[in-house]
Amino acid sequence: MNILLLGEYSNVHATLAQGLRSLGHQVTVMSNGDFWKDYPRDIDVARTPGKWGGIKLMAKIYRLLPRLKGYDVVQLINPLFLEIKAHRLFPIYRYLRRHNRKVVLGAFGMDWYWVHTCVKNKSLRYSDFNIGDQLRTNADALKEREDWIGTDKERLNQYIASDCDGIVAGLYEYWVCYHPPFPDKTVFIPYPIVTSPQQLPRKRNKDDKLRLFIGINRSRSEYKGTDIMLAAAEDAVRDYPDRIELRKAESLPFAEYQKMMEGSDAILDQLYSYTPSMNPLEAMSKGIICIGGGEPENYEILGENQLRPIVNVQPTRESVYEAIVQLALHPERIALLQQESIDYIRKHHDAVIVARQYEKFYQEL
After folding, report:
1. pTM flag (> 0.85)
2. What sign does the dihedral 62-63-64-68 (CA atoms) show?
3. Which residues are CB-neighbours of 247 under 8 A, at least 6 positions away?
4. What's the CA gap between 45 and 35, in Å, rounded?
5. In this structure, are strands 73-76 and 43-44 parallel, antiparallel, or unpaired?
6. pLDDT (tens digit, 9 = 90+) per residue, 73-108?
7. What is the distance between the alpha carbons of residues 29 and 43, in angstroms, rounded to a whole number?
8. Which residues of 12-31 are buried (b: 16+ CB within 10 A; e: fewer)?
9. Which H or E element spans position 290?
């Protein structure tokens, strides 16, 4: 098949492209590299700042349109698949729909169905927008609600979801959002990770400290719970300085982030998630334990009955602190959890295994 992957979130499309190419498909990735993360792509559509940057990007997109025809499948990372205003994406989506065989919408992150499910339905015990019946009122959550509810973004999202041929959810949370309204065209396929058959856990000495790693995006720290996880980790380091050390990576490009993560024992990520996303999955593939979202629903949707490598935490500072301290005080658990992390990623997230699931889904459309 000839496949166009349009847009990027946390290396999902760039990694999926590797898996699909290994199966013999022709794949083009067109994206902005997910802003400063700078993930690889075949066609770059990054926007430069300011009004003039928007004008230049629109001109570039319209020049590119003749190249975006004749694909068997076009997959959009999000309803906002290009870095332009929602109302300008309607004609571009219609062009893609008209000139390609099938169009698939990715349910991989922030969109109206996610906001609506968390704010109105409260289908999840906790999320980026709610803790139980209580709505979160941090600045990011309020901004996203304002951005997506009753706006062009909502209308675009609903239009594409209703019109497209299929919807792929990459996490349990997003499947919860899309499967009820679109049961006949929504599938769950895990995120892809490039794995290595030679990967082994880090060899630890008996007296080694627990090496914690946390990635910090200052603009999204409160929304994703990084502020709480960081505070809990700093508390743990203060209370157990001889047992725990902490490394922090702030808003780094992906290649630098990966390099800094090497040699860690555990990563702190995604406080309000039921499931690990791309960064902790990447870490787990290297034998780094994820302290974050590992709720029962995560394992159930994968059909996983044995491996339990994720140190699940509730969305509180106390829960994160306790998880870190227990791991530091019981280092005999670390080697098992590290090996289980590697096995879990190979079993469920290997890029070729995931690409085969996409291949089957595309062929059935």
Report:
1. yes
2. positive
3. 211, 212, 213, 214, 260, 264
4. 10
5. unpaired
6. 999 999 999 999 999 999 999 999 999 999 999 999
7. 6
8. bbbbbbbbbeeeebebbbbb
9. strand 289-292
